[in-house]
Amino acid sequence: MTMNRETLINTIIAVAFVAVPVIAMGMNEPFIITLATKVAIFAMAGVGLNLVLGFGGLVSFGHAAFFGIGGYAAGILASHALNYEPIMESPFLIEGTTQMIVIWIVALVVSALVALAIAAITLRTSGVYFIMITLAFAQMIYYFAISWPAYGGEDGLSIYVRNGFPGINTLDPISFFALCAVMLGIVMLFSAVLIRSRFGLALQGARQNPQRMTAVGIAPFRIRLVAFVISAMITALAGALYADLNRFVSPTMLSWHMSGEIMIFVILGGVGRLFGPLAGAALYIILEHLLGSVWEFWQLPLGVLLLIVVLFARGGLVGVLAGERKHA
């Protein structure tokens, strides 16, 4: 009965998510459409983190590294394409591009390689050590971006024209929202299928009892390694879209503040719940928009709400609405 109620809640969230920008388009309110697009992108980043946090039990405080890698992939490739300058000429020619599909592929590949290197080290630890090492790696990448003057350094890098997607006018707010919403839907569907697969069951088993998983011949390290890489790739895809939304990328996308925000989306919505990141990102953006315009310290009520969720509603917003408390 609870599961049916949660499915109903998920359906309502999905319908509201699509309906709000459509209504805003009819009311000629492009800003609301932009906010909905931001929700979609942040939710996608949350889906990536939720894969390792909610289902793998890995508290990563460095996912901003992958979010920023996706953003810089979009910014660097677009910058070189618009300036008609190759990225490198020797030993082979690499040129920039303004095509989103190519940018996404680059973001996925680069983030996967970086995540593989980071996970190979961090997954040999656990608990607070894992948290601190993921944070340390993210901060190293953050300071590297600050000291990279070729691409703006601390001032960031502008994308003068939003990158293109075949058959879609990405400069049109509702079209770009539709693109982001579809990509979010694909990512959520992929996540749902993955979690229900043998791999997903093994990942959850490694979270609950790694010794038993080892005893039956399944290596928790390898399972977590693959999950961490997939999680990073999803987050990097969100970062590439976020850079296109703002037409700007800066080291703030790599900072620990961004890692914290992504984690807040997951916790507010519900750790280990498919629609948790979407609900959490929507709630965060609503609070930021409504309270941020009238009070400088709008994060205070957000912090109180987060504390209430952690102490009394471990299932997050989705869990509360579904009438269940989920103890992850």
Characteristics:
transmembrane helix, globular, 328 residues, 13 helices, ABC transporter involved in vitamin B12 uptake, BtuC, mainly alpha, 2 strands, single chain, two-stranded antiparallel sheet
Overview of the structural elements:
This protein is mainly alpha-helical. Helix content is 70%, strand content 1%. It contains 13 helices and 2 strands; from the N terminus they run H-H-H-H-H-E-H-H-H-H-E-H-H-H-H. It has helices spanning 2-26, 30-53, 64-82, 100-122, 128-146, 173-196, 198-208, 210-215, 220-246, 256-269, 276-292, 299-312, 316-321; strands at residues 157-158, 248-249. A two-stranded antiparallel ribbon has the order 1-2. Helix 1 (2-26) runs antiparallel to helix 2 (30-53), helix 3 (64-82) runs parallel beside helix 5 (128-146) and helix 4 runs antiparallel to helix 9. The longest helix has 27 residues, at 220-246. The mean pLDDT is 91.
Question: In a nutshell, what does this entry contain?
Answer:
The chain has 328 residues and is mostly helical.
Detail the topology: elements first, then pairings:
Layout: H1 2-26, H2 30-53, H3 64-82, H4 100-122, H5 128-146, E1 157-158, H6 173-196, H7 198-208, H8 210-215, H9 220-246, E2 248-249, H10 256-269, H11 276-292, H12 299-312, H13 316-321
Helix pairs in contact: 1-2, 2-6, 2-9, 2-10, 2-11, 3-4, 3-5, 3-9, 4-9, 6-7, 7-9, 10-11
Pfam families: BPD_transp_2 (PF02653)
Transmembrane segments: 7-25, 31-53, 60-81, 101-121, 128-151, 174-195, 221-242, 262-287, 299-322
Protein name: Branched-chain amino acid ABC transporter permease
